[in-house]
Amino acid sequence: MSHVDETLAAYETIAARYDELNGQMDTAKLVDRFVEAADRYGSGGRRLLDAGCGTGRSSTAFRDRGYEVTGYDLSPAMVAMARRRPGAEEIRFRVGRLQSPPPGLAGFDVVACVDVPMTYLTDMEQLERSLAAARDQLAEDGVLVFDLNTIGYYRRTFGVPAVADRGDRYAAWFAVSPRIEADAVVVTQFDLFERAVTGWERTSMRHVQRHHSDRTVRRAAERSGLRVVAAHGLVGTSLREQADEEDHDRVLYVVRRT
Ligand SMILES: C[S@@+](CC[C@H](N)C(=O)[O-])C[C@H]1O[C@@H](n2cnc3c(N)ncnc32)[C@H](O)[C@@H]1O
Question: Keywords, A to Z (predicted)?
Fold first, then answer.
């Protein structure tokens, strides 16, 4: 199975329960950081494309902050959940890949890729294709804003096997990849054990992501007709002015057309 098919399978499996299982992520607060970045570096325009919108949590958070939102995602099951999200009735959701988005998406003041969709682009070609596609979706003075996991985050979170006890549910995860290195693919096995009528039910999936170093992002952006205008750190959902690949969880990038 290709990496993108594995990602698709993982999100199709989990879509119906994604919001519940990912409840510890405060998407509204994360979106606040994206909005601040768009206000600081962008044109102030309100047309926003939520690329990798998942179940629409980020899309409705942007809408609540005054944006006119269109969203798309790789997974039809995630998009189906987004279309059913209360309050998302006026948001247009489509199915498509960052590497080959749905046609006709152009002229956006902000393209946002929230909660690491771009980590699922597992080689340079896919990263460049996705950045080039985002470039074409932007208005002349628009900004693309996206977050990526740091190497420190991959090591801390997936480098050692972990189990979370959530009452009637246990989640276990560990990196299958032997080493977590800069610009390398990180394969993480997730197993979810949930109490059933008799015994436990197990759901397994693999997430195939890639660490993109700052050098790689800048090179890929340049080759795609974009330039990095800011790279801030994120610790949880708190912003740090200068990104640190070891200590911070994520880097929040802002890029513009050259
Ligand atoms: C962690 S979820 C975040 C969803 C949403 N932005 C949010 O904040 O709730 C990552 C999403 O990225 C999507 N994704 C992964 N690879 C993708 C790709 N190549 N093209 C489009 N979407 C992708 C997944 O289907 C998933 O819905």
Answer: Methyltransferase, Transferase
Domain residues for 189?
Answer: 152-209
6-50: pLDDT as tens digits = 999 999 999 999 998 888 899 999 999 999 999 999 999 999 999
Probe residue for ligand 1, chosen from 74, 85, 119, 190 as the CB with the greatest number of ligand atoms within 8 Å: 74
Model pLDDT, residue 34: 98
Helix runs in 22-73, H state only: 27-41, 57-64
Report the Cα 13 to chain-centroid distance in Å: 17
Pocket test for ligand 1, best of 19, 24, 53, 188 (most atoms within 8 A of CB): 53
User: Are residues 81 and 123 part of one domain?
Assistant: yes
* Model pTM score: 0.97
Q: Which atom of ligand 1 is nearest to the CA of 117?
A: 12
The count of residues in the chain is: 258
Query: Do both 159 and 120 map to the same domain?
Result: no
Q: What is the DSSP string of 194-230?
A: EE-SSSEEEEEEEEEEE---HHHHHHHHHHTTEEEEE
Asked if 30 and 62 sit in the same domain, the reply is yes
Q: Are residues 113 and 205 in the same domain?
A: no
Tens digit of pLDDT for each residue in 88-121?
999 999 999 999 999 999 999 999 999 999 999 9
Q: What is the CATH number of the domain that holds 171?
A: 2.20.25.110
Both 143 and 161 in a single domain?
no
Query: How many A from CA of 74 to the centre of ligand 1?
Result: 7
| Pocket-forming residues, ligand 1, beta carbon under 6 Å | 4, 7, 11, 27, 52-54, 57-58, 73-75, 78, 97-99, 114-117, 120
